[in-house]
Every structure is written in structure tokens, then in C-alpha cells.
Amino acid sequence: MASSDEEIVFGADEEPVKDEANAAEAEDAAASDKASAEGADAEDEEDEDTAEGSDASSELEARYMSLYAEYDNYRRRTQKEKDNLYADAIADVTKEFLTLIDNLDRATEGAKKSDENSLDKVIQGMELVGRQAQDTLKKIGVEEIPAERGTKFDPNLHDAMMHVDDDTLGEQEIAMVFAKGYKYKDRVIRHAQVQVAN
Fold first, then answer.
1. Nearest residue to 188 (alpha-carbon basis) of 163, 154, 164, 162
2. Of 49, 51, 89, 170, which sits 20 to 30 A from 105 (CA to CA)?
3. What is the C-alpha to C-alpha distance for residues 90 and 99, in angstroms, rounded to an integer?
4. Contact of 158 with 147, CB cutoff 8 Å
5. Is the pLDDT of residue 18 over 50?
6. Does the pLDDT of residue 55 top 70, yes or no?
7. Phi, psi (degrees; rounded to nearest 5) at 163
8. Which residues pair with 79 in a beta bridge?
9. Least confident piece of the model among 10-14, 100-104, 127-131
10. For the chain, domain boundaries
11. pTM: predicted TM-score of the whole model, two decimal places
12. CATH topology assigned to domain 52-140
């Protein structure tokens, strides 16, 4: 044990203590390092937020492009289906009328070769072709609009071409039919063109 006269020195083996000016610089440097570290952490957080935002934006853009491509494909597909439906409908209706056209051609050729004695046969042939045309229209669902003399005028079905005074007919009754009208279900294809009385 050391005597009381001996001076005890602590830290003799350690590094000498720096003076106060160096200590202040060291504290400033430490504070600066701490601020830099905190700033770097904040930048890292901002970079992470930016990266997350960028990822979310990229994901939204990818979803948008996918939906746009899907919609564009749907639009093209439905347009193609619509075009095909229209073409099929035209083909079906035309097919129904081909036999009628053939018979009209035959009737025309027969009429060219006819004489006065065969006029009745030509008329009968034309009447047959007319009946065939009506049957073809019925087959595809087209009906004639009723428009005989004495039928009540209906502006939804008839088109008044002329007006006439006729004591034998009531008010707003059809006096004469100029052209037959036709409808498909509830849709009018052509109004009957008529003369209306009184």
C-alpha cells in the first residue's frame, strides 16, 4: 500500500487529456457527424418513400395499361361480332329471296316469248311470284300493315299522301292505298302510303 506522501496518478497509462480548445472542436465534429448521420437516415427514409411511391405508381400504370388493352380487345371483338351478325343477317335474307328472283327472271323470259293468247298465263305467273314474295317476307318475320279501303287511319302505321272528301267513308278512314307498308314485329319498315278521307 502506498504511503500518504506519495502522489497517486490516475490514467498514467492512458492517453493524455486534450486541452479545452481541442475538446470543443471534438464536440463540434461529433455533433456534425451526428447531424450527418441523422440527415443520411432521413434521406434514406425519403429514398424509401420515393421508391415505394415509384413502385405504387408503376403498379397503377401497369394495371391501367392492362385494363386499356383488355378494353381495346373487347371493343374490337364486339365490333367484329356485330359485323359478322350483320353479314349473317344479310346472307340469310338474301338466300330467301334468291328463289323469288329466279322466278321473276323466268316470268320475264316467258313474257318476252308470249303472244296475245298467252297473256293470261303471264298474269298468273306474275301473281304466283307475288304470292311467293309475300310468303318469303312472312318466313323472315315481315308482315304487311293492314291498309284496305275503309280501315281507320293510324299515323304510326300509315303515311297520308293525299286527302279526299268521300261520303261513303267515315272520318279519317283510308280511301286508297298507293303503296303497301311493312313491319317487322313492332318496328315499321315502311309506312303504308295512303289517301285519307274526310
1. 154
2. 89
3. 15
4. yes
5. no
6. yes
7. -125, 140
8. none
9. 10-14
10. 52-140, 144-198
11. 0.56
12. Hemagglutinin Ectodomain; Chain B (3.90.20)
